Amino acid sequence: MDAADAVLSALDPEQREVALAVRGPVCVLAGAGTGKTRAVAHRIAYAVAAGLVDPDRVLAVAFTTRAAGEPAGWTGCRRGPSTRPHCASSLTSGR
Q1: Which among 7, 17, 41, 60 would be 20 to 30 A from 79, CA to CA?
Q2: In angstroms, rounded to a whole number, what is the distance separating the alpha carbons of residues 89 and 76?
Q3: Is residue 67 exposed (0-12), middle (13-18) or buried (19+ Cβ within 10 Å)?
Q4: Could you tell me the end-to-end alpha-carbon distance of the chain, in angstroms, rounded to an integer?
Q5: Is 45 exposed, middle or buried (0-12, 13-18, 19+ CB in 10 A)?
Q6: What is the DSSP string of 46-58?
């Protein structure tokens, strides 16, 4: 299993569909607690792992501290393929 497939392995079928839609905008409509933030974060991770996007050219904006903290917690703000750490924050977090 390569890195891109590993990113998808923990997703349910609906989340996987979001993660695989790496070209163009995607609208994810679902109720609270259904994994929207998780699916979008995995979309970014999949695109980077598959070599479809340069991680230094990704901007993800979250509008709540909780939404920003979820992907940051999953990645541990660890270093990716580039030399800069990949982190997430919200517009309101002040980080």
Answers
A1: 17
A2: 12
A3: middle
A4: 35
A5: buried
A6: HHHHTTSS-GGG-
32-89 per-position pLDDT tens digit = 889 998 898 899 889 988 999 888 888 877 767 666 666 555 544 444 444 454 555 5
**Are the C-beta atoms of residues 7 and 45 closer than 8 Å to each other?**
yes
Rounded to a whole number of angstroms, the CA Rg of the chain reads: 13
Distance of CA 41 to CAs 22, 27, 53, Å? Answer: 12, 14, 14
Domain ranges of the chain: 3-75
Angle among Cα 17, 2, 8 to the nearest 5 degrees reads 20
Contact assessment for residue 28 and residue 14, using Cβ atoms and an 8 Å cutoff: no
